[in-house]
Amino acid sequence: MDELRHAHMFRARGREILAALPQAADEGAAFQAHAFAPGERGLDDLVVEAESDDSLLAFLHLSEKAAAQRFAMYREVLGFDEATQGVFTQILRDEAFHMNYTYAQLRRVSPKKHGLALWWARLGRLWKGYLRLASAIANVMSTVILTAQYFLVLPLFALFAKAAARRLPRGWTPARSASPLGSQY
Ligand SMILES: [Fe+2]
Which pTM value belongs to this model? Predict the structure, then answer.
């Protein structure tokens, strides 16, 4: 419920910022915030049923902690925009509570192995970080390779096609004789 409330707060503040922009009415419809990180969210998919209580709580604790750290940083740099800074101040309070709550629950559910669960969750985050980096590098590589193919390999084939066309007889040529109806060829 808290996260849903945060989403409403972000959306409301975003609308205010958008409305305050010049020509917001024309350009607002075309503004796509996800263009900053297209397709990246798929890695954050969480299959709750596939997680055990302690792994889920460890994951949530680390996610809340990361969110709290990030929001604290956003609040710090938003000195020039008090309204948005206020949104982050409010949300940060909730995130700090979520962070402590999930940690307390993790310790309750898994009093002896909560450290291990946290390390596993950290490794999972590291793995996802690696995947993000690898897909970003793959994206750059495919752009370079496909561009090189387009400009270097494709012209070669165009030259071959031209040479082959030159070898063909010019003008009208008599059609080959019809195949006999009694043959399968
Ligand atoms: Fe949260």
Answer: 0.66
